[in-house]
Amino acid sequence: MDRERADGQLAQIAETVGLARRLGSRVWLRGGWAMDFFLGEWTRDHEDVDWFVPAADAPALSAALHALGYRPLAGSPPEQQFDVVKDGLESGFALVDPAPDGRVLVSGGPWAGTAWPAGLLNGPPGRLGGLVCPIVAPAAQIEIKRMMPVWDPRRPRRAKDTEDVDRLLRALRRPASAPPTERRPG
């Protein structure tokens, strides 16, 4: 596994969480890094760092990231997501909207107004080494990984998604008296 890349991504995760806190915003890790923070261990290399951010907070967060040297990447529909790169490492921020009833909704694009899985952003923070970060709730992570090929048939099920679901399910079945081992890259 590429420890240098993982250490760079972890540094950017810490930077993003701190920046969002200073802005009075919230961000939540999603995808592979969210799983690793839930498990408390680095399980595999990650292509990028995936986040959820409230759509209302996205312009300020994007501008603040730009001031820190992150550059925009083209390609994602701006009403759905913004992507940035710094030091060759990519981060993607999917936009969400809160609903009055507490659900979390897709912010824009063809699925605007569609609810994400229940409890998506209500889980406890995750931890990897000494870094604590808000994450997508594990049950919602599982549902997203299982359902993405159904919701969007252009995105086939990947082997890493099946492996991630298995890891998350094993961890959720683990007795509370058996905490995960903290393993950090490096």
Would you kindly provide a brief summary of this structure?
By secondary structure, the protein is α+β, with helices and mostly antiparallel strands. Helices cover 37% and strands 20% of the residues.
Task: Please give a structural write-up.
With 186 residues, the protein is α+β, with helices and mostly antiparallel strands. The protein has one domain (3-137): Beta Polymerase, domain 2 (2-Layer Sandwich). Helix content is 37%, strand content 20%. It is built from 5 helices and 8 strands. 30% of the residues are buried.
List the helices and strands and how they pair.
Blueprint: H1 3-23, E1 28-30, H2 31-39, E2 49-54, H3 58-67, E3 71-73, E4 81-86, E5 89-98, E6 104-106, E7 126-128, E8 131-133, H4 138-151, H5 159-173
Parallel strand pairs: 2-5
Antiparallel strand pairs: 1-2, 3-4, 4-5, 5-6, 7-8
Helix pairs in contact: 1-3, 2-5, 4-5
Q: Stretches where pLDDT falls below 50 for ≥5 residues?
A: none
Count of separate structural domains: 1
Helix content: 25-40%
CATH class designation: Alpha Beta
| Sheet/helix structural class | alpha+beta
How many strands? Answer: 8
Give me the CATH architecture, please: 2-Layer Sandwich
**Percentage of β-strand residues:** 15-25%
What do we call the CATH topology? Beta Polymerase, domain 2
Shape: globular
Total DSSP helices: 5
Overall residue-averaged pLDDT value: 91
For the biggest sheet, the summary is:
6 strands, mixed
Distance between the termini: 10 Å
Q: Rg from C-alpha positions?
A: 16 Å
- In N-to-C order, the SSE pattern is HEHEHEEEEEEHH
